[in-house]
Amino acid sequence: MATELTWLGHGGWSIRAGEHRLLLDPFLDECPTACCKADDVEADVILVSHGHFDHIADVVKIAQRTGATVIANHEISLWLGKQGVENTIGMNLGGGLQQPFGHVKMTLAHHSSQLPDGSDGGNPGGFLLTLADGKVYFACDTALFEDMRRIGSVGLDLAVLPIGDLFTMGSEDSIEAVKLLTPKRVVPAHYNTWPPIAQDAGVWADLVRAETESEPVVLKPGEKISL
Ligand code: NI
Ligand code: MN
Q1: At CA 143, angle to CA 133 and CA 26, rounded to 5?
Q2: Among 14, 125, 210, 216, whose CB has the most other CB atoms within 10 angstroms?
């Protein structure tokens, strides 16, 4: 069965890799564009990129209901443990971890990571996943940075980039990111959740086609892409 990635809206993803169900940055119950609620999703692993509420708000309740293992940076893994999440794995930037579904590497992100109660959420990150069907890079919340060239050098089947601007890179910088990453396909995320991060994904897709070799794929919340 092909690996399927479903955009949940905002920065949230559900990934089916073989028999494994992964969630990345699920933000559902208070997200105006989410395709489902926190009670509707299944997971055996939850990846958390950083501590902001729009990435972590539903993690504790989903982890407690499903028993999923949460993979996050060291500080967030300790914080989640204190919130009552039983299974956590802490890692840090540049670190890799082999799991039954594939390999996880935590990549740089230029952003911030304060947790909802004001605790220190460590450094924000992105994720490079090596799955049975290909390599996927989730930039998560970040500015454009030149080292994306190095992340892309492994040969990416898919990159997921924020385009919302204001809190992360916007459309224009995401085009530069595509040029550095050179993924086969690229999907936009972290936009249109609220008016301050409104973007026209059709215009963005035209720019990707005009200026890069990558194929843009624009999803609506609830739609999926296969590797
Ligand atoms: Ni953020
Ligand atoms: Mn965010």
Answers
A1: 55
A2: 125
Say which residue the tokens 């911030």 belong to.
Answer: 112
Question: Quick one: 81 exposed, middle or buried, by C-beta within 10 A (0-12, 13-18, 19+)?
Answer: middle
Antiparallel, parallel or unpaired: β 125-131 and 158-162: unpaired
Ligand 2 geometric centre to CA of 189 (Å):
10
Write out the two tokens for 204.
């963005």
Domains and CATH numbers, the chain: 4-219 (3.60.15.10)
Average pLDDT, the chain: 97
Query: How would DSSP label each residue in 100-168?
Result: TTEEEEEEE--S----TTS------EEEEEEETTEEEEE--S----TTHHHHHTT--SEEEEE-B-SSS
Using CA atoms, how far apart are residues 14 and 26, in angstroms rounded to an integer?
8
Yes or no: say if 30 and 6 are a contact pair by the CB < 8 Å rule. Answer: no
* 154 CA to centre of ligand 2 in angstroms: 26
